[in-house]
Amino acid sequence: MAVAALIVAIVDDDDGLRRALSSLLRAEGMAVRAFESAEAFLAASAMEMPDAVLTDIQMPGMSGLDLQDRLSRLHPGLPVLVMTALPDRPLRERALSSGAVTVLDKPIDADLLLARLQGLANRGED
């Protein structure tokens, strides 16, 4: 599966970041579904399941880590990439030990994000 074929859900309460990431991924040919909260993502049950979820850790309401935990039960194997502006090692370790593909620091390094998504696309070709 080429990276352009990926469907990525972006879950972040920061509208500007959601828009910027959506533009970046669309420019690479990916389909993007953007959500302002974990609850909004979970409520969109009629949408096509994404190939990956990119979520912020700290959001009002359900956190990105809680979303990751829920997704691991509802959709085992769905890759979750976690973003954070917090230099909190225990949060990072929790995300990774719970199965996050990666933890990305904000501001997001576009090349690193695209490389991680390319890795997911390549894994899907196996």
Give a brief rundown of this model.
This protein has 126 residues and is an alpha/beta fold.
Quote the average pLDDT: 92
If you consult CATH, what is the topology? Rossmann fold
* Secondary structure category: alpha/beta
> Level of helix content?
40-55%
Termini separation comes to 9 Å
- What is the CATH C level class, in words? Alpha Beta
Q: Count every beta strand, where a strand is a DSSP E run of 2 or more residues.
A: 5
The H-level CATH homologous superfamily, spelled out, is Response regulator
Number of domains: 1
Low-confidence stretches: none
Shape: globular
- Outline the biggest β-sheet: 5 strands, parallel
What's the CATH architecture?
Answer: 3-Layer(aba) Sandwich
Describe this structure in words.
The chain is an alpha/beta fold and 126 residues long. It has one domain (3-124): Rossmann fold (3-Layer(aba) Sandwich). It has five helices and five strands; from the N terminus they run E-H-E-H-E-H-E-H-E-H. The protein is globular.
Write the layout of secondary structure elements.
Layout: E1 7-11, H1 15-27, E2 31-35, H2 38-43, E3 52-56, H3 64-74, E4 80-84, H4 89-97, E5 102-105, H5 110-124
Parallel strand pairs: 1-2, 1-3, 3-4, 4-5
Which descriptors would you attach to this protein?
single chain, 126 residues, alpha/beta, Rossmann fold, 5-stranded parallel sheet, 5 helices, 5 strands
